Amino acid sequence: MIKLITWNIQWGLGCDGRVDLQRIKNVALEMADFDILCLQEVANNFPGLRGSRATDEAKQLAALFPGYEAIFGAAVEILVDRKIHQFGNMIIAKMPISQVSRHLLPWPADPENKSMRRLALEVVVDTDKGPIRIITTHLESFSKKQRLAQAERLRELHAEAYAKALRETLIDDSLTPFRTAPRALSTIMTGDFNVRPNDPAHEVLSAPFADSTPSLVDAWKIKHGADPHDPTFGIYCCDRTRFPDAPLCFDYIYVTEDIGKRIVNIEVNKNTDASDHQPMLFTLE
Question: Among 250, 211, 244, which residue's Cα sits nearest to residue 230?
Answer without folding.
Answer: 250
